[in-house]
């Protein structure tokens, strides 16, 4: 039986620079390009060799950092973090990088991923006297490093990493070193690059293009990269690791201009759409995608099927945290929020609506209804991924078993529930093939746990499930 | 010879509701869907039959209005405005609706467009004792209404309107009436709709979909619509008017889900792209569009040409007013701002880059350079409109003669300046045909002044030209 | 019969500098020292000889102006204004200086005082075509200047001033001149000073000490001072004027370190307290004052009576606009707001409580109750001014006839209503004598209208009465 | 030899309520009345029996808490804290109450005082694996409680308290209990009161008057008060404690309407002033005090000496964090900041200037100069306390040995340095006698360490000295 669902997760983005005189500015632009990975909070910690200076806050990168802040974030090395919006929890305490002070030196940590044994570790640590000020599982990592008996910092870090289970792409910064670590399954993307002599590390390669960096290589599962004034070196803290890269990074989470392990995201999505067109045999007038993440797949579908691609749905760009949600009575009168149908495009048409995934089914139902109200005569829903049947414990905010519509219902039942004229998913194998990775492992080294329930790591009775977020699909 | 260039223009959006108990909330969502027409300021004025209440401010709709403000904006009728960002001028005083108090009643005005005789009228009015607190040409309208000798308010308004030359879509609100007026050339879009018994008016029909309204009809050139508790009535203040709808509303300014005079914007743009594909004869590997406004044209081009459409360029969604611009030294190191090339898509490819227009040429040059640096072997620039040779005096912020690259240079010269392997524009006639309006007038009732220099209205030596804005293309 | 009560008044402070390279900074510190005269809004307009630049906003001086704003307010001359908090009205539009643009030049106006014929003038001006954007009577002045037929600016100003009735200390700034005008009764204080070669003008002399200026002289009733690059000159726009300086400036409004026409405010108040001690014959243990304005009078009383002065009441310094007012239920449980009694000082004591005035009586009643609850055995209320029986139309926010407790009730009735053991006021003559001005006019040139109903100017049926403010006493 | 000087101190205020349905609101008003004890930050943590909810932030109480926050701070018990402004350190992390989460329950701590063995304890705790996120010594207390081996929470707290050396008035809140502890020397004030059935605790009794509470008793040195649903009980964690109440709380820190151990602060100060008058034999025309803290002493001096008390110096009330400090060039031109002399009062006069203390001498020198420039013929400085010769390690921000002018210089030398015509201090014994406590201990139970160097607790080589703050006197 799967673990009880509780807690808080962190689907986020990390970025770091070592060896650049404007490291904080570079990190600002890097984080800015990773903003889609987290809008709740952002932070940067820098070192000038002597002192760690940090600034963090709730909100977008552009809200947290002002011009004059940048000049105070002095130093040749920086790490940064953008944090995913969670429903209720959070607050300033949980914004990263976390910064810890000690009489022998300071430590900053930025973490993307989710630890499945965080609660177990917390129980252990509290038994030994640790106290916690955030609800983030990242704080556990700092405690484990602190408590390790090893004498060198890198040994203490490696010792701590062996205690962690789950997904983690970690950046650590001390006065004199930056460390980069990836979990033994390599569940989250993490890449190294260079700007001249400086090293850069990022959750997604799109940040390299934005800051003018060159891609060097991906960080390997179970690898600890240590960068200091003597240069860069690589160590292993885990052997026999098997890559299990999150499929959802390809399907909907990452930015289309990023490459993950050599595969461009836009291209992968377009291929998913093409594959979908091959398995669907429906006559239709237009293909449309759900913005933004499904546009590439929809274009691929249209191209393969020879049906015109049209903008049948439009997203309002200006919906932010301060947007006033329409009241129930206004929604019932037809006031839309983020997404509107384009009547001129769908009226009187048979519409193929391509989306990347179905989670709870509520969004799909709303869009189908919207398109039909706008005059579509048929709406065929084509999903560029397999049905999501199981929750993710590694940092992607899907949902609980209870709420995952595909966990309890057949495809035909879902079709009826969302009011579509037809509903098609990709199979796991078609999805893996379309993405087109060259990895030799099972499922070409992709994690497909949320489609199959086969988790690449152990789970525990108190494993923390990504908290339910506002995003319902 | 054309008038000297100076002053301030107002490409903006207007929205109004009459007869709805939550008129301010409806207006909030309406303005929100018109946000692309102006991000500098926003305002709403309501009437409850006795008192006009206003709230306005600098910034986005979601920044200006907070939850608790809505409850204070009581009343069954509201007008609202979103204001275009201008370079230096502006400030709170220029944010609309403007609100004027008098011992016989109050008046609020919201204006989209640009008056070509504003300075002439100001000189006249100042000679008669008027004083001005804003630099907006809208203030002139209030003075003209006030000074009119007619006894009824609607006669005074009509009398004032006859004095105006240029482009104006106007909403007026008093304690007991809402008035809607469009200039005799109908240069700007303005449409009427209904929500049950309530009337709605908007610059673009996309707002109707968002607030659940039904489209009724477009406001006619030279028409004054008067709505009060006795119902709605239409009057004419100008006869013999000829429609000259701004071509740029179709080409790049309006939202793709809006219809202007029966033509859907996305469809028009896709058709412009298709037409472009017909006149271009180039072998290429991929078609890409410059986000956001050129995506529809690029898809049309790709569809017609049978060349795959790809996301070769990506726009960062989170660039707002508080974004810290990279310093020159960082830009030289390759730090990007709003737009990034997608290396995985363009590397080693012959790229057709579709854009909607070229103004100064600087943006085109930057994008071509960016694509080539990202590995494109050829970059063919295809523009879904004719060369812009003349400034607009009606509210679209293109630029001055000096700065309009097509005003001084041939197509071949421009191609060389922007570094493209080829450069193609649409002809005026192809553009008009592709958009596909059914109007019987010259150029099917489109204003093509910025392409041909043939202005639909008189101009004056002191006509105010749209101030130069940050947007350079 | 007195005019109907309606409208908005402006008890405020003005400050100006001509001929100093850091005129805006000097004005900032000047306004800061006048902050007690108005906390609702603040503004500064500067000229560098070519352009008027303005910045204004709602809130305190320190809230409106930030460090980087100061560098933008360039120029050798500035005028500034602090605005009194009004209950409901107001908003940004009413914050001064008001700034008017015209094709022949700009004009900024800052005004302290209240016009008694503002409504009459507005009716006239609206009849001639003027429109108004604020509810401030100051806007009238700009219209009158604009409409004057005279050819020179100073003649137009003088012509406009002859139209005004009531109280006004006015600063005007154009690109090339600063003008200073005082109403023919000199109802409000206004003084000239110098900093080296620069001229400074202020509502209160305390600002001279703060900015390091030397006092030169007071502006005379009916005087227009004109300062430009040719120097300073004085003109008269009214002859036969009689000084009627507001008594309340001495009694409670001005800062104790200011001098008005040669009389120091603290000294005047202390003398009012001494005089009060001479007419009161009560045995008591302690004298206490109501902070802040009555402390000087209380000390004078204690000194003269030989009774110890004690801090029987204390004011919380941190009550600002964002203070959350206690709910009714909390107030009933005893939660205090601004003022607390000092139990250790008043318990078991016979207390003489000196206050500067009684307006509605509600504050006096609250304080007497508070002192008794804190253990005072007797509370004798001694007021260092005569009973206020009539409203002020010149800018001091007292109240309406209805609400002025002394307008309807005898001293004995008031004593009973506020629960005091005795109640003493000063007579008008004692008050005038104690203040000790050397003016030869009636009441030594003081306005005593609020005590006697003898107004120094005409009044009109639609004279605007100072709006009722939060301050109830 | 005394410890090296480094670190951060916390002169602050604490307030708590147990058993009131609006505990957070009560705490808001309580903290508001303690605002003079700390303006850098404020926070409240509440419990409703199940969950601790906290809100804290940098700034004033009125800035940190908004109306809608209050409704979210649900619960029958609350603790709150206001934090003293420190020069450089600080930030959100150091704002209290600190809140710690654990799987067995949460804990909030608010602390007024300064631990002299904080660094020693940190070294110990870090050796055992603790990590720290703030630079506040308060975090140490939470770690000690966590690590205690005792089984009940109150035993763990008492165990932790025995490890602390120095000054602490502590409030602790868990889901089900509030605890109140005072160090064995009782160096800081802490009092218990009641509102009906609810218990209230505060740093100063002025808060009781503001929230309508009744004073019950002072918390005793070495006492731990435990309040929960079973009622209130008192325990001792230290025996043989001797009260050593901080003298500076009487002399300048506390609010005049507070009583500390039965002595009213205003009365104490007035008596200090009277005693000073008895030992000074100088002919003078006026007595003036330095606002705000020296006014009571100055009035006492004037009363005893029979010399008129006058407002010779005035403080600008509106100087806050956002005040723009005048540049050096403006200061040299005479622009004043917080304090101005009242020329009308001091010109041509022999002035006795009463101040509460001299720390560095810079402020005294500035005031003497200011008074002389304003025309005072003689300035005699009378200080209502003994010379401060030694730094405070218990939370009062005086300064380091280096900077304490009386540490290195004789009274005559100081007189010359500050430019006074005479300079008088009180002796320690006169000071103790004037304050008039009835305690039987040495110096009547007052701590006089800063005057004599005789510290009531042990000190350590790494004892943290209160960081130097902006306040120089």
From TrEMBL, chains A, B, C, D:
GO biological process: 'de novo' IMP biosynthetic process; purine nucleobase biosynthetic process
PROSITE patterns with a match to the protein in the record: GATASE_TYPE_2
Sites where the protein binds Mg(2+): 293, 355-356
Pathway terms, separated by semicolons: Purine metabolism; IMP biosynthesis via de novo pathway; N(1)-(5-phospho-D-ribosyl)glycinamide from 5-phospho-alpha-D-ribose 1-diphosphate: step 1/2
Residues the entry annotates as binding [4Fe-4S] cluster: 246, 392, 447, 450
InterPro entries in UniProt: GATase_2_dom, Ntn_hydrolases_N, PRTase-like, PRTase_dom, PurF, PurF_N
Presence of the UniProt keyword 4Fe-4S in the record: yes
UniProt function note: Catalyzes the formation of phosphoribosylamine from phosphoribosylpyrophosphate (PRPP) and glutamine.
Protein name (database record): Amidophosphoribosyltransferase
Organism: Mangrovibacillus cuniculi
């Amino acid at each position: 039986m799967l673990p009880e669902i509780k807690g808080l997760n962190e689907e986020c983005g990390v970025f770091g620079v070592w060896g650049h005189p404007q490291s904080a500015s570079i990190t600002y632009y890097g984080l800015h390009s990773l903003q889609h990975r987290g809008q709740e909070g952002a932070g940067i910690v820098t070192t000038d060799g002597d002192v760690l200076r940090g600034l963090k806050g709730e909100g977008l990168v552009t809200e947290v950092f002002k011009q004059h802040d940048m000049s105070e974030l002095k130093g040749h090395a920086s790490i940064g973090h953008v944090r995913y919006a969670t429903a209720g929890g959070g607050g300033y305490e949980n914004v990263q990088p976390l910064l810890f002070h000690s009489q022998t030196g300071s430590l900053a940590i930025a973490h993307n991923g989710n630890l499945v044994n965080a609660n177990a570790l917390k129980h252990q640590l509290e038994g030994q006297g640790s106290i916690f000020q955030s609800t983030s599982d990242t704080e556990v990592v700092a405690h484990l490093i602190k408590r390790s008996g090893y004498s060198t910092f890198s040994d203490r870090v490696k010792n701590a990493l062996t205690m962690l289970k789950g997904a983690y792409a970690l950046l650590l910064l001390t006065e004199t070193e930056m460390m980069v670590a990836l979990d033994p399954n390599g569940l989250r993307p993490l890449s190294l690059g260079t700007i001249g002599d400086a090293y850069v590390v990022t959750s997604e390669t799109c940040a390299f293009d934005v800051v003018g960096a060159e891609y060097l290589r991906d960080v390997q599962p179970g690898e600890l990269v240590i960068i200091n004034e003597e240069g860069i070196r690589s160590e292993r803290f885990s052997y026999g690791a098997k890559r299990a890269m999150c499929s959802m990074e390809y399907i909907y989470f990452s930015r289309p201009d990023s490459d993950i392990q050599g595969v461009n995201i836009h291209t992968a999505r377009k291929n998913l759409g093409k594959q979908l067109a091959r398995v669907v045999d429906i006559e239709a007038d237009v293909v449309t995608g759900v913005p933004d993440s499904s546009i590439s797949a929809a274009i691929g579908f249209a191209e393969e099927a020879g049906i015109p691609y049209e903008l049948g749905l439009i997203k309002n760009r200006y919906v932010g945290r301060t947007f006033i949600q329409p009241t129930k009575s206004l929604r019932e009168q037809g006031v839309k929020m983020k997404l509107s149908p384009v009547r001129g495009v769908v009226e009187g048409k048979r519409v193929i609506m391509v989306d990347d995934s179905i989670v709870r089914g509520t969004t799909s139902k709303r869009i189908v209804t919207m398109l039909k109200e706008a005059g579509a005569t048929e709406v065929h829903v084509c999903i560029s991924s397999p049905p999501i049947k199981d929750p993710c414990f590694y940092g992607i905010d899907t949902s609980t078993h209870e709420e995952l519509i595909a966990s309890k219902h057949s495809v035909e039942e879902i079709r009826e529930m969302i009011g579509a004229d037809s509903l098609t998913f990709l199979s796991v194998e078609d999805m893996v093939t379309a993405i087109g990775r060259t990895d030799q492992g099972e499922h070409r080294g992709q994690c497909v746990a949320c489609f199959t329930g086969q988790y690449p790591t152990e789970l525990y009775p108190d494993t923390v499930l990504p908290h339910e977020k506002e995003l319902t699909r």
